[in-house]
Amino acid sequence: MNDQDILTRIQALVEEEHSLREAPGDGQVPDKARLKQVEESLDQCWDLLRQRRAKSDSGENPNDAEARPVSEVEGYKQ
Question: Quick one: where's region Disordered (predicted)?
Fold first, then answer.
């Protein structure tokens, strides 16, 4: 997966996240479990993209970057 593939995936996830967050007009409750999965996938994608860019900037092969587990990515301090 290259940077453009990751960015395309991020865009698709952002669109899904927005549609899940929109207040439905018919009183339905958003799918909170799916929203959580989308948020976690977004965090993983952004992390992978940052890893790839860091490797590239330091002269390493960006293809050596690997997606980290959700438990690791979600545990980062901001």
Answer: 53-78
